[in-house]
Amino acid sequence: NAEMYRAVDLTRDQSYFLFSTTQEQLNFLRFPLGKMQKKETRKIASEFKLNVANKPDSQDICFVPNGNYASVIKKYRPETFQKGDILDKEGNVVGRHDGIINFTIGQRKGIGIAHKEPLYVININAKTNEVIVGNREALAIKKIFVKDINLLSKVEDYNGNLFIKVRSTGRLIKAKVNLNNTSAEVNLEELENGISPGQACVFYSKSKFGDKVLGGGWIVRTENNYLST
Predict the structure, then answer these.
(1) How much is the pTM?
(2) How far apart, in whole angstroms, are the C-alpha atoms of residue 78 and residue 135?
């Protein structure tokens, strides 16, 4: 069976987005640019006089006009702009917000609450329209639960050499995975901040050939010392 690895140019690596590729599809796929830096690719394109040799890199989401994400979300999910409460981790109301659309897990700036220590967004409850804030320690995730897992390899075989990635530009995090059919409990051996339900969790192992993609799934819940999201 074919295997997939992270690209040499980690700033251009797309393996995080390809975790749901099936083994059948992977057997037919080839990634000829995986061992090259972007500048090398541009040089080859220039030598072949391709008109895309100096094309600017793609950025953001192409269908969002002027990078205004809020306008797109307002059209499809207007309820995310409703005013609501900001709570501390004990459940006390400490402020008001103008819509959960304005907040992300791990956010520090723009919360609008004066406090003796820096406050961060540690949870967003869409059902109750509430934003929960706390100190930096409250962001540290210890365990995540993943669903709809697609595997390209037996993850259990790599638990001593298993890493996860929870964002496209994130680092590889040492972890252990307990599988249950297409769901899993993932225990982080290194703490990571700002992990949210809805993000992908992709499994990797390290070898002499590089960082091998073992599969992945979607995060449905996270746990830390203070709360479960």
Answers:
(1) 0.83
(2) 30
